[in-house]
Amino acid sequence: MLRIESLNTHYGRSHVLQGVDLEVPAGRIGAVLGRNGVGKTTTVRSIMGLVPPTSGHVLLDGQDIAGWAPHLVARAGVAYVPEGRLIFPDLSVLENIRVGERKPAKVWTMERLLDLFPSLRERAGNRGWQLSGGEQQMLAIARALVSDPRVVLLDEPSQGLAPLVVRELAGVIKRLCDEGVTILLIEQNMKLAEAVADQLHVMVKGRIVYAATPDVFRAEEEAIRGKYLTL
Ligand SMILES: Nc1ncnc2c1ncn2[C@@H]1O[C@H](COP(=O)(O)OP(=O)(O)OP(=O)(O)O)[C@@H](O)[C@H]1O
Ligand SMILES: [Mg+2]
């Protein structure tokens, strides 16, 4: 479904992605772990066309969308939940969700989104700034879903959230997967990634250096953590 091949991306002269290879089959969850600054966000921004890759392929059901403008990538069925959520503080919950709407949703209608996120239903009229971090994260996910995407890119959704809220988030991510959404999850929270992902990938200096299923990853975790993940 989503397949990234030899992706290279530069910021000016800085060669950030150095041949990223990654695949997430349809309806599955692929996670990317990695230290700060290795290129995780650049990977999702490159897929979205927010920073055009200099070479390589981003295949969506076999169609190469690398270098497409962001609105065309979105139209092709990819939605992006950015790091830091980027909720509009002065818009209400419902208005924030509608920002993500391209045409009236068929799959993820407002009703269905508010069923999926009961806390957002309770706070429908509240402004973005009045929400907790967890509610803001759920809102950012709802805003992505309202475009009826086939693929959702989640950039560090657990950042700054309390353990209980991270558990709730894990439930939401699994639920999306059950509904057939393909998910690329960027995370620093290894427990969350292990709990939800079908395949875990580790990024070091702009490359995927390791990939395994959660079971294999768990067995090798200490070595992997020491080698690639701790500072
Ligand atoms: N707009 C930009 N212009 C220039 N360099 C950038 C830009 N954005 C990121 N970088 C650099 O590219 C590298 C990769 O950054 P990126 O944000 O992709 O890392 P990350 O893995 O998402 O890190 P974090 O865990 O902190 O979110 C870093 O060295 C960063 O300083
Ligand atoms: Mg990042």
Structure description:
The structure is a single chain. It contains 9 helices and 10 strands. It folds into 2 domains: 1-77 and 151-163 and 180-231, P-loop containing nucleotide triphosphate hydrolases (Rossmann fold, 3-Layer(aba) Sandwich); 85-149, no CATH class. The protein starts with a strand and ends with a helix. Helices cover 37% and strands 26% of the residues. Helix 3 (93-99) packs parallel to helix 6 (133-145). With 231 residues, the protein is α/β, with parallel strands linked by helices. Strand 1 (2-11) and strand 2 form a beta hairpin. Bound molecules: adenosine-5'-triphosphate (ATP) and magnesium ion.
Question: How is the secondary structure organized here?
Answer:
Blueprint: E1 2-11, E2 14-24, E3 29-33, H1 40-48, E4 55-60, E5 63-64, H2 70-75, E6 78-81, H3 93-99, H4 110-116, H5 118-122, H6 133-145, E7 151-155, H7 163-178, E8 182-187, H8 190-196, E9 199-204, E10 207-212, H9 214-229
Parallel strand pairs: 3-8, 3-9, 6-7, 7-8
Antiparallel strand pairs: 1-2, 1-4, 4-5, 9-10
